[in-house]
Amino acid sequence: MESNKDSMLDKAEARDSSNDVDVRLLDTILASKSLKDDKGLETGAHSLRKNGLSVELKSTPNVRIEKKEDHPGIDVFVRDDTPLEFVHVPVIITKGGFDDVVYNDFHIGRNAHAIIVAGCGIHNDDACNAQHDGIHRFFLDEGADVQYVENHYGEGEGSGERILNPETDVHLGKGAVLRMEMVQIKGVDSTVRTTNAELDDNATLLVTEKIMTSQKQSAKTIFNVKLNGKDSKCQVTSRSYAIDDSSQKFISNIEGNAKCFAHVECDAIIRDHGKVTSEPAITANDVDANMIHEAQIGKIAGEQLVKLMTLGLSEKEAEKEIINGFLA
Amino acid sequence: MIELKDIAITKGGRQILHDINLRIPDNEFVAITGPNGSGKSTLAKIMMGIEKPDSGMILMNGKDITDLTIPQRAAQGIAFAFQAPVSFKGITVRRLMELASKKELSKSEVCNYLSKVGLCANNYLSREVNSSLSGGELKRIEIASVLARHASVSIFDEPEAGIDLWSFKNLIDVFGELRAECNGSIVVISHQERILNIADRVVLLEDGTIKDVIKQGEKYSLFTDQIRCCKC
After folding, report:
1. Interchain contact, A267 vs B149, CB within 8 Å
2. Between B7 and A53, where is the model more confident?
3. Domain boundaries defined on chain B
4. What is the domain partition of chain A in residue ranges?
5. pLDDT at site A195
6. Measuring CA to CA, which residue among A200, A180, A309, A110 is closest to residue B68?
7. So what's the ipTM on this one?
8. In CATH, what number does B2-85+147-231 get?
9. Between residues 132 and 161 of chain B, which touch chain A (CB distance below 8 Å)?
10. Is B220 exposed, middle or buried (0-12, 13-18, 19+ CB in 10 A)?
11. What 8-state DSSP symbol labels residue B107?
C-alpha cells in the first residue's frame, strides 16, 4: 500500500519534473519515526501546497479540508469525538523570488483526537529570496486532544535567502490539550516564529521547540501565553543550537490569570561565535498562579565530552552525539 | 594487565603523586584507598587518560599507552566510572548503554545491565540521563555503562558514593560478576570497608605515595588502624 507521502509525490510529479527535490523536501519535513508506520499516514486527510499553489487536498469522513475563499489557505474541520486521525499539511517551495503567505485554520471538535503534521521545506538555487509565512489558527473545543508536529528545513545553493515566519494563534477550550513539537532542522536563513495562546479551564499547552542555526542565520521565537482558565497548564521547552556566526533569541511572556501552572525552560548550546539571548518573562496575576522559568546557555560541558570519550567516542563523535540528543 | 611506572604529577604547585609504581594483573580486584586528597582519583584518571602525568609510564599488556588519548585507551579495553556522573539533556539511558556497548541493544540486554545495578529497565529505558534523575540513579546508570563496556580494566571512582538505598551486597555482586564475565581486572577507589574486604589487594595511598599494599586477609587490623590514623 502506498504511503500518503508517496501519494502526494505522485500527484506532485505529474505537475513538476523536479521530483527529486520534492521527494527530499517532503521526506525531510515529514520524517517522524513515530508516525511513519501508522495507518494514518496511508489513509489520512492531507493538503500539499507547492510554490504557492494547492497541489492536493483530501478529506476523510472525520476530517474535512476546504480551501479558503478569501485568502490562500485551508480550513480543516475535525469532527467531534473523532478517535484519532492524522492530518498532513506540508508546504514545499522549490524556487526563489517567491513570498508565499498561507492562512490555515484548524477547527478541532469536542473530544476529537488528531495528529497534525505540518512543516515547510524550501529549496532555493536562485539569487532571490524564497519566503513562506504560515499563519495558523487552532480552535480546540472542549476535551479535544491534538499533537501538532512542524518541521522547517532549507537547502539550495542560491544566494537568495530561505525565510520562514510562522505565526500561530491557539485557542484552547475547557480541558483541551495541544502538544506542539516544532523543529527547525537546518538551512533557514531567517525566521521569526510567533505563537500566541489563550487557555480555558483545565486546558494544557505543551510546546517543544528545537532550533539549529549556522553561518549567519538568525532565529527569533516569541511565545505569548495567557493562562486564563482555572487549573490550566503550560510548559514551553526550547532547545537551541547556534554555531558559526548565527544568532537566536527566545522570548516568552506567560501570564497566569487564574490558578494555573506554567514552566518555561530554555536551554541553548553555543559554539564558535554563536549568540543566544533568552528573555523568559512570567507574570502572576493571580495569587494561585504557580510559574517557573529556567534558562541555561553555554558551550558543551567538557565533562560530557570526556564521559563519552571514555566510552570510545572521539571528541568530534562525542560532540555530535550530544548535539543529536539535545535536538532529537 | 595494567602497570604504572614512576607516575608523578603536580597540580597547582602541589605534588599530587610521587613516583607511583603499581602492577595490576588480569583478573585481579584492586581497591585503592586513603584519606581525602591522597591522590586516589588523580591516579584513576591518569589510568584512563583523563589526566596526564608529568613523568612516568603506563603499560597495558606490556604496551606503552602513556601518550594514548582517552578514546584510544577505551579501545585498548579500559573503562571508567566517574565519582560524579555526568548528565545529558537528550541522551536516553538506552542510548548511553548502546554507546557503551558499541551496538544496538535489545530491551532485554539493557534490562540485564540495569537490573545488575538495581534499576528496572521499564522505568528507565526511554528516560534522559538528565537532572530529573536522582544522584543515586545517575550513579547506578554510570556503573551500568561500565558493565556494558565488557572492558579488560574497569576503573570505578568511589562507586559507593551516592548509592543511598541500594545495598552494598548488590554492588559487591556486580564486581564479582564483572570479574567472572570479563576475565578482566577491576580497580576501585573506595573508602568502604566492605569493598576493601572483597579486594584481592588493597593499596593504601597517602600524600601521593603508596604507603602499604595489603593482600586479602593480611594485616587487616593493622591496615584499619592505618586508615584511622590517616584520617586523624
Report:
1. no
2. B7
3. 2-85+147-231
4. 4-302
5. 97
6. A309
7. 0.92
8. 3.40.50.300
9. 145, 149
10. middle
11. H
Task: Record the pTM.
Answer: 0.82
pLDDT confidence band for B216 (50 / 70 / 90) = confident
Give the torsion sign (CA, A302, A305, A306, A307): positive
Cα A82 off chain centre by: 23
CB contact under 8 A, A312 and B86: no
Q: Which residue of A has its CA nearest to B80?
A: A310
C-alpha cell at A35: 508516525
C-alpha cell of residue A235: 510548559
**Side chain identity at residue B200, one-letter code:** D
Q: How far is B129 from chain A (nearest CA, A)?
A: 10
Burial zone of B191 (CB within 10 Å; 0-12 exposed, 13-18 middle, 19+ buried): middle
Each residue's pLDDT tens digit, A197-256: 999 999 999 999 999 999 999 999 999 999 999 999 999 999 999 999 999 999 999 999
Torsion of the alpha carbons at B214, B218, B220 and B222, rounded to the nearest 10: -80
Among the residues of A31-91, which ranges form H helices?
33-36, 39-43
Per-residue burial over A155-192, b if 16 or more Cβ lie within 10 Å, else e, is bbebebbbbbbbbbbbbbbbbbbbbbbbbbbbbbbbbb
Rounded to 5 degrees, what are φ and ψ at B217?
90, -15
* Interchain CB contact of B113 with A (< 8 Å): no
Tell me whether residues A309 and B145 touch, CB distance under 8 A: no
Residue A18: per-residue pLDDT: 61
Question: Computed over its alpha carbons, how large is the radius of gyration of chain B?
Answer: 17
Whether chain A has a CB inside 8 Å of the CB on B126: the answer is no
Taking the C-alpha atoms of residue A107 and residue A77, their distance in angstroms, rounded to an integer, is 5
